[in-house]
Amino acid sequence: MDKKIKFSTKCIHSGEYIDKETGAVNTPIFQSSTFVLSDEDYKKILEGKAREAWIYSRYGNPTRRATERKIAEICKGEDALLFSSGMAAISTTLLTFLSEGDEIITSLDLYGGTQSFIKNELPKFGIRVRYVDPTNLDEIKEMATEKTRVLYFETLSNPVLKIVDLAQLVEIGKRLNAIVIVDNTFLTPYNLTPLSYGVDVEIHSITKYLNGHSDVVGGVVVGSKKFVDMIWERMIRYGGAMDPFSAYLLERGIKTLSLRMERHNLNALRVANFLLTHPKVRRVIYPTLDTYPYIITSVKYLTKGAGGMVSFEIKGDDEDGLKFMRNLKIIKEATSLGGVESLVSMPFNTSHASLTKEEREKIGIGPGFIRLSVGIEDVDDLIWDIDQALKKI
Length: 393
Ligand SMILES: *Cc1c(COP(=O)(O)O)cnc(C)c1O
Known about the structure:
- By secondary structure, the protein is an alpha/beta fold.
- Helix content is about 40%, strand content about 15%.
- It has 15 helices and 12 strands.
- Strands 1-7-6-5-4-2-3 form a 7-stranded mixed beta sheet, sandwiched between helices. A 5-stranded mixed beta sheet has the order 8-9-12-11-10, with helices on one face.
- Helix 8 (about 190) links the parallel strand 5 (about 180-185) and strand 6 (about 200-205).
- The model has no long low-confidence stretch (mean pLDDT about 95).
- Pyridoxal-5'-phosphate binds next to helix 4 and helix 5.
């Protein structure tokens, strides 16, 4: 096609598997662990091109491949690779690019599971970890050595919503000759496409916005074909491949990504503005509020919106926070985020329970810190719910 296809059209049509026999408009679920081998397949195996053949579903599966192609297109990458969880994508990618003696520069402002993997597992392989503040990338220059191999950050961090200046990060990465990897789960390619700023590898927990319906756990990496092929080699060794049914659900979810993100963006901004004026609320964090400390960076990158995550601190302690959550009637108290339904949790006893109290306070998770994933319900109902629950504390 000559026409340059836009984002929403790509979400629906990119990658779709055209079944020649039936003309099915949806990608079939190839619920098969293995495939009949042909001479052509054997040849590809011998040439080290097993990824281009249908051999065995850990290596590749047509349903999964269709979804990978869709994600590669919407993220403006050459290729993508799906995993059985976001953590499988993250651990496999880091172990692809890091070897004994290497160093990684990252931040404590990360999803708790990622932070825990980096802190507890990487040193076992003889990999050294150095931490910086993601909003002060000049620190990287002080921390960097000739062994720095990877820079790893979240485009919008969990749960303090710190934004990384991607252009600056990429420039530093180039100078250090390091691989720049970002987790773009919170923003999604609807709000930001890191690869177009020169990032090497983009990762998502598709469990969140990309799938969007809280019914699949999975992860994806996107980047150049060269890098994705390198990660694929490790994926088949470590084994964290996505199953065909999850890939089917994910493809179905992505078809409505634009509609969902548009509403998440609007609803979250409305909720954030409501919280800002509430007498029971001490602090609100949302990247497009005037009060956001990194507003200069966020307006530069977030031209469509800032996603559905709103963090805030109530006037009170963690006990009051728990009480607030228990009193909600529509919004559910559950970990995870990015689904159509609004969810609320406190990082101290969920996503960031693996950090010490001091580590949490260092990154800005104080007492009464609430993480709200604003869904796509009618926003007036959400605001009513939050207000009635806040009144009870
Ligand atoms: C949830 C999450 C992960 C981990 O993904 P899983 O699918 O739960 O393994 C990684 N990064 C971020 C930002 C997340 O929110």
